[in-house]
Specification:
The complex is a heterodimer of chains A (105) and B (144). Helix content of chain A is 37%, strand content 36%. Chain A has three helices and five strands. Chain B has four helices and five strands; from the N terminus they run βααββαββα. The chains are: A alpha/beta (105), B alpha+beta (144).
């Protein structure tokens, strides 16, 4: 398995921890997790990206889709401690400023 | 010894990770900066993913060819397929800017990342079938 995704609910927030490689093969798993978490979360969806070793544009597009879905549902959406590979791709795509980033959930 | 490498891979997304590993290894031997190598791996991956998604419309039983070629001044990467020719508007370079979330269409992001990473990009869709994309990276720039 190239990616491992775990969702945990803590109060009003759902934390989705992503580990491994997010690419065209594995990003559908992330999409499912995010789109399930948005309606299930009370207030916020947090995506922990500290364990992501690789992400491609399909993974980034999935995060954008999660953010859009959260906004439509009046939920918060933020990234937690994105790893260096994630930060590098977000910067390259000029998408680093659209996500709220926190060091911890 | 010939430094070049040629791969023929099935158009199945599950093999993208293996392609990235092989390209990463080849780049290590080509002595380019680690950060730049990560960008090149990403861009090659994007080009292969585009072949699978668009040229082959998600069919996993086709093939794509990847060639990695080292020249004194440049590294040259070529990916070719036998699928649907890419419409020219999908291969256009567009300025990357901080997007308005409402207008964001991430579908074309991979192509723009390819343009961001390489010094020269040449898309050659076939008249009837197939595509070939050639991507060139100047070695001098990688020493920055």
């Amino acid at each position: 398995m190239s990616v491992n995704i775990e969702a945990t609910k803590s109060g009003d927030e759902i934390l989705i921890a992503v580990r491994g490689e997010v690419d065209l093969y594995s990003s559908p798993q992330l999409r499912t997790a995010l789109l399930e978490a948005v309606p299930a979360a009370g207030t916020d969806v947090a995506v922990d990206l500290s364990g992501v070793e690789y992400i491609d544009s399909s993974g980034v597009a999935t995060l954008v889709e999660g953010l859009k879905s959260a906004r439509e549902n009046n939920k918060g959406f933020y990234l937690v401690n994105p790893s260096a590979p994630v930060r590098q791709v977000l910067e390259l795509a000029r998408l680093d400023s659209i996500f709220e980033v926190k060091p911890t959930s | 010894m010939d430094k070049d490498m040629r791969l023929t891979v099935r158009s199945d997304p599950r093999f993208l990770g293996s392609i990235r590993k092989m390209v990463r290894g080849w780049l290590e031997a080509s002595e380019i900066a680690e950060n730049k190598a990560a960008d090149v791996v990403l861009a090659i991956d994007e080009a292969c993913a585009n072949v699978i998604r668009h040229a082959y419309e998600g069919r996993c039983d086709q093939s794509l060819e990847i060639s990695l070629h080292s020249e004194p001044e440049q590294l040259v990467f070529q990916i070719s397929d036998h699928g649907e020719p890419c419409p020219p508007e999908c291969a256009e370079q567009r300025p990357l800017q901080i997007p308005d979330l409402d207008d964001l269409k991430p579908g074309g992001l991979g192509v723009q990342l390819i343009y961001q990473v390489f010094d020269e990009v040449d898309f050659c869709p076939g008249k009837v079938r197939g595509n070939c994309i050639t991507m060139r990276l100047n070695r001098k720039k990688t020493e920055e």
